[in-house]
Amino acid sequence: MDKNQTILIIDFGSQYTQLIARKIREQNVYCEIHTHQISIESILSKSPKGIILSGGPMSVYDEDSIIIDKKIFELNIPLLGICYGLQLTAKLLGGKVEKAEDREYGKAILNNFSKSKILNNVSENSVVWMSHGDLVSDVPDGFKIVAKSEHSPVCAIENSEKNIFGVQFHPEVNHTLEGKKILRNFLFDICKCDGDWTSKNFIDKSIEEIRNKVCADDVICALSGGVDSTVAAVLVQKAIGEKLSCIHIDSGLMRKNESEQIEKIFNEKLELNVKYIDASELFLSKLKGVTDPEKKRKIIGNTFIEIFDEEAKKNHKVKYLVQGTLYPDVIESVSVKGKSSLIKTHHNVGGLPEKMNLKLIEPFRELFKDEVRKIGKELNIPSEFLSRHPFPGPGLAVRILGEVNFVNLELLREADNIFIEEIKNHGLYDDIWQAFAVLLPISSVGVMGDSRTYEKVLALRAVASTDGMTADWYHFNSEFLATVSNKIVNKVKGINRIVYDISSKPPSTIEWE
Ligand code: XMP
Question: What are the DSSP calls for 77-132, one per residue?
């Protein structure tokens, strides 16, 4: 990856901002998302090849609308405004934005083309995706309108001399059929990016950065057994070798046989220097009687911190902590000017570094899971390990609604294992982002043989997603569900009823707590 080829995305709160980043990276161009508060100096210090102003939920005329320093248009850096980004560009440069008579949500047809760099090779009548209530009614001096639609007299504008462009629609969503072409026009023809952001380049560059950062200090990593922290540890180990030590804490909240499998992979395949600590009893004793989801998360997070802290203190040379934080962890944990609210405490983001006075190494802070998997592949991490479904830091504790105890854990482990094995046997594992069982805190009446039973209800959850930010419930065929339901009820004593979760995210979340 060449960070000198960066595209800066400035976020005004659009639900699609991350999608812009993905679409750019898919073109092998590196990009970073920053809030609208970024200063002109910081922008310049990154020497971006181009800037994108994202969409946003506001109107540029709202009292609390967020804006950006007008100097951004004087930097001689190509700029593309998308939706709100276009309207902001128009307003700040002297054009006019008004409430649209007909708000435009959904598909629209581009027409009335003029020759342009941004829409080069895009076909007349191309379908685009709109989502706006305001429209540009007057373009600033120096700009020309290069496309319209039925409800938007200004659908795309450009100032080809200053390399400033704006589109009312969203080129980043798949419904904009030639969106990729439009982004490519911007990235390659206008910004002159080389498109050399590959996993291999990313690894080389990160290794160099980590070495320069760490110098003579030591580094520690809490290895959860998940893909992100493992790939991060292997990358850091490649950079600094034995100066990295890893700790794996078995919380007792893992899935069936998971800790053994993890130990085997770390020892035999990855040659990581790992210390294993079995803390299952401690975790369970602290969780006794606790039913509130956020309390559970906090207790688990704090217990990890305590154990880790004690271990880390044994080596005074440790100054850095490696975390496998991903981009979605960062956004879901921060509230930006009240535009996105805190949904759940993801404990891998906060806690440890403040308490321990350690500096962070987070090589994947700007990446999505599929990008980390590609990097893991490049680092020769076995693919069966990389393709594992994500597993939350608090483990099965957030999949047992109500109190977490050993009996409930064993029930859930058995049932979950049957579900996952069946998914694998049917060849569905890689189609599914995440599948798991959830033990509900209710019992229901059943009949087995001639006897009445009064046992637990188990929910099955499976979702399709690309990054965990949004998700659809997975449509199994009914025979598959019948097979799993039968097997679980027959084999797991203590569960007599199975339900399947058919909610998507939003409005639900993937995990139940
Ligand atoms: P939700 O439930 O918020 O989950 O839709 C989105 C993704 O994040 C995972 N998840 C976590 N991962 N620590 C983690 O490392 C956590 O505390 C945590 N909570 C949820 C979840 O499994 C899904 O993939």
Answer: --EEEETHHHHHHHHHTT-EEEEEEEEEEEEEE-BS----STTTTPPTT-EEEEEE
